[in-house]
């Protein structure tokens, strides 16, 4: 991947996550779908990129947490998860709305295994209370192809 491609992809991710943050809905706006398709080959590729960025940021903060040698490692990891959700709210909103999506399975499994090896804690992303939840009347299914028009969710 070239430097220009990397920066173009980064701009698309930032723009879409900015739109999600502004609307509060985990939906890729219709005006951004062509960009997402062009850069990521569709929604699945975009979702994997957001997930990769989430786990990279989580892992970057993990060493500092473990250096503190917390008495309750599980609680420390959950706290780290929520602190990161406060820093990356749109990414977390999107990933929470897509919990169980097949595109996320491989990296979720990989990260869960590595975290278990490193900490002895089995952290289940889909079971950590979401930092952000869509309003009940606009709630997305556990996973959904968010490219599809979704009535009130896209309004």
In short:
This protein is mainly α. Helix content is 62%, strand content 0%.
Question: Can you put this structure into words, describing what you see?
Answer:
The chain has 155 residues and is an all-alpha fold. 62% of the residues lie in helices and 0% in strands. The protein has helices at 3-23, 33-40, 43-67, 73-87, 89-97, 102-119. Helix 1 packs antiparallel against helix 2 and helix 1 crosses helix 5 (89-97). The radius of gyration is 16 Å and the shape is elongated. The termini are far apart. The model is unreliable at 132-143 and 145-155 (pLDDT under 50).
- Uncertain runs are 132-143, 145-155
Shape: elongated
**Mind describing the biggest β-sheet?**
none
Percent of sequence in beta strands: under 5%
Global mean pLDDT: 84
Number of strands: 0
Structural class: mainly alpha
